[in-house]
Write a structure and sequence with these properties.
Elements: H1 3-37, H2 51-55, E1 64-69, E2 72-80, E3 83-85, E4 88-92, E5 95-103, E6 108-112, E7 118-121, E8 126-133, E9 137-142, E10 155-161, H3 163-194
Parallel strand pairs: 2-5, 4-10
Antiparallel strand pairs: 1-2, 2-3, 5-8, 6-7, 6-9, 9-10
Length: 204
């Protein structure tokens, strides 16, 4: 090999080595930036509560959907063998939702069909994640972590409605809750004042 060809090859080798070194340095800088600014998605655990203690927290006392602002919602949910509470949630199209989900017993999963939501639910920890629901329809929720003999029955559903239809749904829910409150009040009055003499069947 003549000297000129050897020098040309050596020149290209130096260029490729320099480029490789720059890329390696860039990767290190990007990793450092991610860890410094975004935390790198590395869980920082100071401890783990018992599942009973966690699910008895006020956040999970009344699981369900709460409106937090214009088209912003918070969903709290408890997973247990072999169900989600609540099993079904209804949201308006375009809803921006923050989920807080906890397991009451063993390891579960929360996977939402046709979305990027796929979360592991570890007993003693709260899984928090966000999702935006722009598509209308019903989305099946499955537990994708084997949790026992009834694992295949652990299903849920998220229904996304147009804004007008969701408003109708909300009004119906308010009416149902009001009727339930009246029923509970009537039962408490009956128990306190009437049950000693009058049976629920109408006798007495």
């Amino acid at each position: 090999m003549d000297q000129n060809r050897h020098e040309a090859i050596a020149k290209w080798e130096r260029r490729w080595l320099a480029l490789s070194g720059l890329l390696a340095l860039l990767f290190v800088l990007l990793i450092a930036y991610s860890l410094a600014i975004e935390g790198g998605h590395i869980a920082q655990r100071s401890g783990r509560a018992s599942p009973e203690e966690l699910t008895s927290h006020e956040l999970f006392q009344d699981p369900g959907v709460r409106a937090m602002g214009p088209n912003r919602f918070q969903v709290t949910m408890v997973a247990q063998a072999f169900s989600f509470d609540p099993a079904e949630i209804v949201l308006p199209q375009g809803a921006e939702v923050t989920f807080f989900v906890a397991s009451k017993d063993v390891l579960h999963g929360y996977q939402l069909q046709n979305t990027g939501v796929n979360v592991e639910l570890i007993p003693g920890e709260i899984a928090s994640f966000r999702a935006t629901f722009d598509k209308l329809g019903e989305f099946r929720v499955t537990c994708n972590e084997y949790c026992g003999i009834g694992h295949h029955n652990m299903l849920g559903k998220v229904t996304v409605l147009p804004a007008s239809q969701y408003a109708q749904y909300q009004r119906a829910e308010v009416s149902a809750q009001a009727a339930g409150a009246e029923d509970a009040l009537g039962e408490s009055v009956y128990t306190a004042n009437c049950s000693a003499c009058h049976q629920a069947s109408g006798q007495g």
